[in-house]
Amino acid sequence: MEMLGNRRLPITQQQAWEALNDPETLRKCIPGCDKFELTGDNTYSVALAVKIGPVSAKFNGKVMLSDIVAPDGYKLTFEGQGGVAGFAKGASSVTLRPVAQEAQEVQEVQEAPAEGAEAAPAPAGCELDYTVQAQVGGKIAQLGQRLIDGAAKSTADDFFKRFEAEMQSRYGPPPAAVDTAAAVPEEKKGAVAGFMQKIGLGRKGDKDAAPDAEGSAQ
Question: CB-hemisphere CA count at 13 Å for 89?
Answer without folding.
Answer: 6
